[in-house]
Amino acid sequence: MTDKKWVYTFAEVAEAEAYVGGSWDGVRALLGGKGSGLADMTRAGVPVPPGFTVTTEACNAYQASGKFPPGMWEQELAALVVTEKNTSKKFGDPANPLLVSCRSGAKFSMPGMMDTVLNLGLTDKTAEGMIKLTGNPRFVYDSYRRLVEMFGTVVLNIADEAFEEPMAEFKAHKGYKLDTEMKAEDWKALVDIFKAVVKKEKGFDFPQDPYKQLELSTEAVFKSWNGERAVVYRRQTNIPDDLGTAVNIVTMVFGNMGNDSGTGVAFTRDPSTGEKVMFGDYLLNAQGEDVVAGIRNAEPISAMNTEMPAVYKQFMDITGKLEKHYREMQDVEFTIERGTLWMLQTRNGKRTARAAIKIAVDMGNEGLISKQEAVLRVTPKDVDTLLHPQFDDKAKKQAEKEGKFYAKGVNASPGAAVGQVYFDANTADQMGKEQKKAVIMVRPFTKPDDVKGMVASKGVLTSEGGATSHAAVVARQFGIPCIVGAAAIKIDLEKRQMAVGEMVVKEGEWISVDGTTGEVFIGKIPTIEVEIEEQKDLLTLLSWADEICAQPGLRKAPAGWPTRGLQVWANADYPRDARRARAYGAVGIGLCRTEHMFFEPERLPTVQKMILAETSAERTTALNVLLPFQRSDFDGLFAAMDGYPVIIRLIDPPLHEFMPDEEKLFEEVITLRVKGETKGLKEKEDLLASIRAMHESNPMMGLRGVRLSIYMPEIVEMQVRAIFEAAADCTKRGIVVKPEVMIPLTGTVKELEWIQPRLIRIAKAVMEEKNVNFPYKFGTMIEIPRAAVTAGEIAVLAEFFSFGTNDLTQMTFGYSRDDAERNFLVTYVAEGILPTNPFQTIDREGVGRLMQMSVEEGRKTRPELEVGICGEHGGDPESIEFCHIVGNNYVSCSPFRVPIARLAAAHAALKHKGVSLAEDK
Ligand code: PEP
Ligand code: MG
Fold it and tell me: Residues near 782 by Cβ (< 8 Å), separated by ≥ 6?
């Protein structure tokens, strides 16, 4: 037992590696993140203050027995002797004292959750020795009082106030505001005051034996593993309780020992832009805390080149080495003590989305990492963030300084928005649409009725609800920046104002909301628009992502199935959407919802006439008016997507959606009757009767989709004619067309047997009339569970499947989406009944099973069956991964999400490379 090694000096990383069997993860588990990092830097030849690490195993042994395991303390003392040799100093020696820090360090970073004690080794005697050595009593007494205070609070559990209050009193008595005003004798007096606090609170003196200081501090760090803060943090972050923390004993180095000393923090690349420049601040003659606290204005790191050229050169060499060693942008902390540079910490630096992309691409181009690694280092969320308008960082900081920060909520939908506050959907809609104002709609929460206000707004802010609340879901769907659950804001809908404490914002006043961070500011902060064409680094990264997906043989699959990765197509209803989709990299249109074209103001009356027609001849007349409109719509789409497939879906929604609102019409009829007016009354009464005749209890499960086509085939016959006429005209103009006609809401193959041959006849007739030929397909959506279950039969006719996962999710769960999101879905997610909102991320176990079954059964019938997805899930990274696994050919999503989907498709391809469908299951 006593042979067990509990302590490793920073130079013993090889021993630690051997002990854990060679894995770096094992070393991290044994020595903790900080300890393994310091040891790794030592091995790389980087100057690290000498020291050692007491292992996490020792911590666990301590937790089990309540005392240091046998041999540990002796090993700590032996490692201290090695440290003394390396520093030529001696612990507790007044002539040349070694001071050390005692720091916690678990395998996973738990910032601020556990304890640290600095300046161990200072006693009345060594303090005198230090003063002789440094000639700087102010620094020594300041360090000493810091030790007494930290030791008192951390090790002896004395409340912070017991030290803070006498210090505040002392400063007030002297008339000082800042610590910098304290003189040497002041700090000296405070050391005595603090020592008296220890005596009073604990009944014994602050230990003058440095070894006692070290022993108790080590124990305190062990204990802090089970401190309340640390336990709560572990619960939240799923860090297991049995990992334990290591304890690092590190030689203290001081940046405040004169003008040949200093301290700083730096990033090896600009963490905001990603530029390859050293970025950071440093302060001459200062300690780390001074940089962080901003007491003095730090200087840019480049200034070091003039003030200490030799150290600067060494610093640049070392950081360059560190970046190469870790193959990542590093965030370093360093101190210069009397001209000697010491690196205190290095870790992968946090960065903005923009920087993440630039750094990944630059490192890929520099050959530091492979293209695949570059692609993996950027998250779909980074791409999402980058493509939304963003606040100018400097302007945001300025606003913060000016006290304009207002509140923080959940960052529900990314992007920056600036606008005038309006408190209800009607006003928001009117101000946004009619008065062309920039609107931020503010509500306690939103309901489906509020959607019109939301889409007319630049941003949405709610004081209630979470990331799957209605506001959040809708805002993401439409790409509107949104913050939800900003609970500090009290909204007074009657007074038309909101307040955070004293800060009142009235209706019509300007605010800025940052949906990326969840922050709200008063007033206008300038935003930066993002044009994809200008995002050269992103375009490069996405081209690498596409290269990854294009590799054949990536997916192990049966004959006929795709073996390359996913393609990304887009949902686009208009030529302008299609052009955007192409600019964003889509290689097909996966869904054109033709009904949107019927809603155009100049067409709607004709659509209504067509619906109300009493004879087939009347209906045909109206449809003949609509035909040229549809033809030109499709012509534009084909032209925009020259060479790429375009899936056009035949009319889907129930007809009442094209008719005037029943209740409103009823009110109008009543008003006319009450007023005794007859003009127009009869027409309105007839219209009302027709609309009432069309009434359905559950229209979304009623006469729509293919049912409507069978009930009223003239509409889809016109649509197919329009599609093929447009395709023929385009072909004659030299445009390469690949039309695919999609029949929605199929539940049984009999429906296809009824409708599809009629439509194919029209397609062929048009090609003959126009004397042109081009490839085309007829297929269906899979959005009804019965279709999924009978996919093998459906594939006899359908040449492609497209998963309509919006409907498929509704029908599989039996949830009406609007009602579910408004009512119980938030509770279901909060209570853990559902892991996430299934309308955002595919429910793999239920809906996903149906999808998998469809692909397998469908391709048994038709091995080359083209399979895609066009529900909202097509733009969700996790769902995209699932589509890769089940064998989709492509995913189709909103044009704005195409770049995100391209990256997510590449991530899925890399993660599942070479794995067969059966293995993935
Ligand atoms: C679907 O159901 O997933 C789909 C794309 O169709 P819609 O949303 O138009 O019903
Ligand atoms: Mg649908």
Answer: 746, 788, 791, 794, 801, 802, 803, 804, 808, 850, 851, 854
